[in-house]
Amino acid sequence: PSSYSITLIPGDGIGPEIISVAKDVLVLVGSLEGIKFEFQEVLMGGAALDATGVPLPDDTLSAAKHSHAVLLGAVGGYKWDKNEKHLKPETGLLQIRKELGVFANLRPATVYSPLVDASTLKREVAEGVDIMLIRELTGGIYFGEPRGFGTNENGEEIGFNTEIYATHEIDRIAHFAFKVAQKRCGKLCSVDKANVLEASMLWRKRFLAIAQEYPDVELSHMYVDNASMQLIRDPKQFDTMVTNNIFGDILSDEASMVTGSIGMLPSASLGASGPGLFEPIHGSAPDIAGQDKANPFATVLSAAMLLRYGLGEEKAAKRIENAVVDTLNRGFRTGDIYSAGTKLVGCKQLGEEILKSV
Amino acid sequence: PSSYSITLIPGDGIGPEIISVAKDVLVLVGSLEGIKFEFQEVLMGGAALDATGVPLPDDTLSAAKHSHAVLLGAVGGYKWDKNEKHLKPETGLLQIRKELGVFANLRPATVYSPLVDASTLKREVAEGVDIMLIRELTGGIYFGEPRGFGTNENGEEIGFNTEIYATHEIDRIAHFAFKVAQKRCGKLCSVDKANVLEASMLWRKRFLAIAQEYPDVELSHMYVDNASMQLIRDPKQFDTMVTNNIFGDILSDEASMVTGSIGMLPSASLGASGPGLFEPIHGSAPDIAGQDKANPFATVLSAAMLLRYGLGEEKAAKRIENAVVDTLNRGFRTGDIYSAGTKLVGCKQLGEEILKSV
Ligand SMILES: CC(C)[C@H](C(=O)O)[C@@H](O)C(=O)O
Ligand SMILES: CC(C)[C@H](C(=O)O)[C@@H](O)C(=O)O
Fold this sequence. Notes:
Number of helices of chain A: 12
Protein name (chains A, B): 3-isopropylmalate dehydrogenase
Family (chains A, B): Belongs to the isocitrate and isopropylmalate dehydrogenases family.
CATH architecture of one domain in chain A: 3-Layer(aba) Sandwich
Order of helices and strands of chain A: EHEHHEHEHEEEHEHEHEHEEHHEEH
Function (chains A, B): Catalyzes the oxidation of 3-carboxy-2-hydroxy-4-methylpentanoate (3-isopropylmalate) to 3-carboxy-4-methyl-2-oxopentanoate. The product decarboxylates to 4-methyl-2 oxopentanoate.
Pathway (chains A, B): Amino-acid biosynthesis; L-leucine biosynthesis; L-leucine from 3-methyl-2-oxobutanoate: step 3/4
Bound molecules: 3-isopropylmalic acid
Strand order of the largest sheet of chain A: 2-1-3-12-11-4-5-10-8-9
Shape of chain A: globular
Radius of gyration of chain A: 20 Å
Oligomer: homodimer
EC number (chains A, B): 1.1.1.85
Largest interface: A-B, 61 and 61 residues
Helix content of chain A: 40-55%
Number of strands of chain A: 14
CATH class of one domain in chain A: Alpha Beta
CATH topology of one domain in chain A: Isopropylmalate Dehydrogenase
């Protein structure tokens, strides 16, 4: 039987509750599929700040690097919102992404038919939406240098960041995206702002060059402002999308809301080699933390992505995804996706129902 | 009687058709309100490139600077899409914004009740949406230096831009936004990415400082990724929003789509002094150019904003806005906002109907 070491990072807010459910699901699926997991739980974000003074302790990073995959809950909370940048929970998240080299962030926006009415979009617009948004995750304005504060020639304070991409950063995300598109419908839409930004012009130029190697993929380009419209106007026009770090941050949240249920959406962050990082798209929801109200589906589905993309265990991944659909079909819902006629349960009980469906 | 000089910039694509309608409306309203206009028509964008080799000829800029207000159709088209940056139609637009110093871009996203079903959002979500989005227009990554292409230490090609804000740039848009919020519901939401970007941290710090001078305005902050979700989840939570140049580009297009009819939405770009620039939010729509299919409402409503914000002619502005509502109520629609039971007309005829309603 295969055996894997998994780093669990519960993080802050609802993180511990949802990670606990996902862990139980992994254990059960593993026992059914002949997969053994060894879990190591470590601190990151606010929890790490409180315990160690930094948002990403060395031990955490080392555990992550030496494991086969990392499953993360969420980080952040009001308590640390006013911290200086290097002492923000979010900084720990950015650091671990960079340190693991997970440049490709897969963010599926899938409408689950039992939940289609949760979308604020009309049923006929939302139904059947199935977008794979790929976000470049370790470059661009998130990490570009120079950055910081300073004084300009008039003695005024300035704040600045650098949006920057080098050819190899664009090329690797492009190859990644073309390959994903190949396995899906063969349609790839690259989103940029090449009518204004040089960084986007290089992005577009490289995508056009690399497209030559993927004659079976139909590449299109869209400006980011238009993309943010088109996602609402007609989300079904999109299959696979790819964009830079900051545009991906904005568009993936927008796309998730098209599905109406951000509590359902997982993500996978992958590098060229080494462990991947898997986490729900939603945040740490400090307002409902510790109240057994959190929706664990997105984390459970992130565990499925971990199995598929992190470990190559497709059968086990499918088993989790089927269990999620079955649990939905049996009518179990947390508050965020509840609607009349379904059964409202807490995070723990939903976890037990998912286990029954596995 | 008051007399004003107006620079008309039809631009490219459908620009000439919609500007022609707006001009007729201005003339009629002027004659009824005792306002005289002197129009000067000049070239910009692709039209200027073809005629003069540059996207913003000196004559155009000089005419604009010496007039009381500038009314613009739209620029851009496939024909010039592959031009180098300094020869793109869009570059002319960015230059005129910068040269006129119009740092404050007002983009209302208003749902017209006869058109509420044009939104892809559910009626109860879209109905009554009335957002004033204020976008900083002459700073940030659109104009930040350094920018360009180069080679990094590995000999690779790089493309880079600088997101940069100085205190005075933030302060003036903040004052502007607080004042707009004061005249509306007294709620201002500032959108940034202060958990990651230093430029946003300074932005937030200055907004917090300036908020002290506006105790009657309730200031809130939202991260841009969350804002892009919230605009779909519950757009009615927003009254006045303010954000930087690039986030404003993305969010204003998204907000416009919430209303379902980008063909209805005008904009005003204002500086500390000098003429303002008024233009529809939509683009030049090269695919329907010259076919008498364009929707002139957004340009006509931009003319109303020109009267209100550019010339202080509130009564004339209201007259135009009322005429638009009346024309809608009488059932006239262009193709983009047509629905069963209404009367489909071309751009020209819609213009005539608006004149009747004036
Ligand atoms: C928490 C924040 C730093 C992060 C980001 O901006 O990448 C989050 O919004 C995300 O999308 O994962
Ligand atoms: C055409 C383009 C340069 C422009 C911008 O990005 O500002 C447009 O999208 C807009 O929003 O007015």
